[in-house]
Amino acid sequence: MKAQVVSGQGRGGKYVEVYAARIEKAVNLKPFPGTLNLKLSGELPLLEPVEIPAFGKFGAIGLAPCSVNGERAFAVFPKKGRHEKGVIEIIAEKNIKALLDLEDEDFVDIQF
User: Fold this and answer.
1) How much is the pLDDT for 83?
2) For residue 38, what are the contacts with CB-CB under 8 A and spacing of at least 6?
3) Residue 102's pLDDT is what?
4) 2-111: CATH homologous superfamily?
5) Cβ-Cβ contacts under 8 Å for 30 (sequence gap 6 or more)
6) pLDDT of 84 over the 90 cut
7) What is the mean pLDDT of residues 20-24?
8) 52, 70, 107, 108 — which has fewest CB within 10 A?
9) Which contacts qualify for 98-104: CB closer than 8 Å, 24 or more apart?
10) Burial tier of 36 (Cβ tally within 10 Å: 0-12, 13-18, 19+)
């Protein structure tokens, strides 16, 4: 599926750091402290995300494996989300935006 890079709210990195140890334990990925925001060109397929339960004041999140232009990644589905419909956040071990030299409005291929 195609997806377009869009600007986020600038808060993803903070939350990735809070959840980092739990993400690493759940899906064997040490996440880069930031997210890539993508606006999907179509509907998400039926996914079965790995759930990280709520803790403290932080809500539960789901993680679904995917790849962005061939790079291993995970789509993050927060139970307390604030994105517009069709926009998802992506985490990976590296800064995918820098690694793939992406800018807002660029298109990528995302596979679930």
Assistant:
1) 65
2) 3, 4, 5, 6, 68, 87, 88, 89, 90, 108, 110
3) 97
4) Riboflavin kinase-like (2.40.30.30)
5) 20, 23, 24, 93
6) no
7) 97
8) 70
9) 99/71, 100/68, 100/69, 100/71, 102/5, 102/36, 103/5, 104/5, 104/6, 104/7
10) buried
In this structure, what token pair is assigned to residue 36?
Answer: 């890539």
Q: Which residue has the tokens 């589905």?
A: 77
Q: Which amino acid belongs to residue 51?
A: E
8 Å CB contact between 91 and 76: yes
CB 29 within 8 A of CB 47: no
Q: Which tokens sit at 26?
A: 């759940």
The domain segmentation of the chain, as residue ranges, is 2-111
Place 34 in a pLDDT band, splitting at 50, 70 and 90.
very high
**Residue appearing with tokens 């880069």:** 32
